[in-house]
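TL;DR need structure tokens for one chain.
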Amino acid sequence: MSTTKAVRIAAVRCVADHRVTVRWAGGTRSEPNLGDFVNRIKGLRPLRSPAKFAAVSVGEGGHSLAWPGALDVGADRLWEIALEQSGRHDAAEFPRWRWRHGLSLAAAAEALGLSRRTVAYYASGTREVPRTVLLACNGWERERDESRTAAA
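>> reply
TL;DR here they are.
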């Protein structure tokens, strides 16, 4: 879940109309419903057919879900969807912040004044990300933007 160790999918199985069971490389499991996502993204229109959707497989290196016809969904986006659907908006927002800024676990820990282990817990969804940490992420981002603007 860092920029040096990408989110990877170990196995996938279609269990219902647009729902899959995913076993992640770290050993956790989730069951995201991709119905809304598939219906919203024009490029995934062929997957609106439950029969075509059921042909899901793990993409190369576990970095995506793949379907015949060169259709895929990235593992990082699938991870976010799974976290959001499990009610963990905090755990979805934290990796977005890290990925948006290209921060490894160690760099994020340094930026926020936290231990790398704590950041790893937040990034994996193992522990709830406190509101104060999410606010610190926003503050770090604003401070970074302001310093770049001042330097320009």
